[in-house]
Amino acid sequence: MKRKVCILIGAAMLLAACGGKEYQPVTTTAESSTAAGTAVTEGKGNETTGEEQTDATAGGRQTAAAANAEHSDEAAAESGSETGDQKEDISLPGVLHVSKMIQNISDYDEAAGDPILTIDVAALTVNDPGYEALRDSVNSYWDGVWENMQEQHDQICQEAKEYHEGDYAAGYYTISRDARILRADSRIFSFLDIEETYTGGAHGSSYQKGVNMDAATGRQLTLQDVTSDYDQVYSAVMERLNQISEDGMLFEEYPDTVSKMFYDGDTSLEWTMDREGVIFYFNPYEIAPYAAGCIEVPLRFSEYPDLFRPEYVSDASGLIRFSKWGYENTFDVTGDGEADTLSVSAYATEDGSATQCTVSVNGVETVHEEYGDFAGAWIFYGGDGRVWCYVHMNDVGDWPILDVFELTGGTPVYVDKLTAMTLQEPGGSADCFAMSTRTDFLGSYQAWRDYHLGEDGMPEADTDYFDIYSYGLGDQTLTVKTEIPATLLPQIDGPDGGETTLPVGTVLRPARTDGESWMIFEMEDGSYCRVSVEGEPYSGTIGGVNEFDCFDGLFYAG
């Protein structure tokens, strides 16, 4: 049996959109930073404590308001929101740039060359300076998932081998843990940990786990942390489920099950927060049969303005919404205040020569042919009531393509396409979102730039440079191997600190570039320097010396 372990980078880069157009201040304290440094381990968080358990009978339920208020005071003290705490004000961008790697283990039947088991685990990293506590918490969470998978590998692999050698010789086990970001701004970082497995049988299984962290401290949040009236949140969720139950798709005992989730210390209550509100997830078999899938219950801030704490509520103007492939999403696309039926799908043509991307609003559809695999779709609410849809396709070699459609008025119209740019999992605003591309300048890097939606539906850059983040992406440093001229920069956005010559052996981490003539590097002491380059990539010169003669570690992707 052959085993292969690898880490995939590049096409798996994720971006999270911002919570506001302008830069927003984030306040931290030494106390809160220390608290945030506590590792967030894998496992479902208990949403209630024993003090918050209540009697489930109508009229006899003890309100959770008192416990909720006490919890609020504790949370405020931990996050440093008390006015008496000593605070350090740090101006940080409202947009968080988040990268994702896919860690993989593959086992094969060496004789037959058939797969036996594949395990894929995501790993998110928050790249922005100033969010170190959040980065540590997110890394700890996904490190725990990966370690858990490695610990279980031998047992699962043995079961997979027996399954492969049995009656289902053509089948193999698959386990996937992926992440979908719902919101990533200077207030909250919220994502879904999506587990999908196939270990034999008629069908696989899936589970969606919500993970929510305070962006300033990295502390994992409970539902009580973000609600101002826990009991009313429960009532609102039950009201929505009661409406769903009228179709007969829920188990008869669902009211008792949901009550236990909220009040009896059940650990299976899953939720996330986006810019519109809080979404609750009821996984297969919890309150409905497998065929019903995961039932989602959204509570929007606009509909329930008094149920959630204002420090976590976000302005929902200029929304970007995630559109599920092949599902009928219900969004207001025509601007009349009523829900429209929107669907996005992509299927290969019969001869396999192209992919037909279909966007439909209330049954009115348009089809555009592209070549590639569907990766995601997002709805942008722009100015003047105009609505746009970005459809992400991956071409040969996972080269990204974004097809842009206008949906205004309810008739989809293909507009244009963007190549080599990626927008994934935005929890943000059409006024401020991030996109990545590959830059080939002093090497190949995944680079980010912030954008806003233009009047024509295309992204317009907010800066004339790209930021390069390499946290969690392996060693992307360069080492100087011949003296080169540079300009010192005490801060990346600061004034020039004078000219210098970088000595041999200086280690530099790429941090920012215009992609054409200069790159700013972070040095080992935390300061920065700018290096000017003349000529084209691969053959550029620094002080008249070819770039490959200037650096060790210089690498261009094929």
Features:
Heat Shock Protein 90, 7 helices, SH3 type barrels, 558 residues, Lipocalin, alpha+beta, globular, twelve-stranded antiparallel sheet
Q: By CATH's scheme, which homologous superfamily of the largest domain applies?
A: Fervidobacterium nodosum Rt17-B1 like
The proportion of residues forming helix, as a percent range, comes to 10-25%
Average of pLDDT = 81
Shape: globular
CATH class of the largest domain: Alpha Beta
**Biggest pleated-sheet summary:** 12 strands, antiparallel
Decide which structural class fits the backbone: alpha+beta
Distance between the termini: 32 Å
Counting copies of identical and different chains, the oligomeric state is single chain
Determine the strand fraction and express it as a percent band: 35-45%
Question: Which fold name fills CATH's third level, the topology of the largest domain?
Answer: Heat Shock Protein 90
What CATH architecture of the largest domain would you give? 2-Layer Sandwich
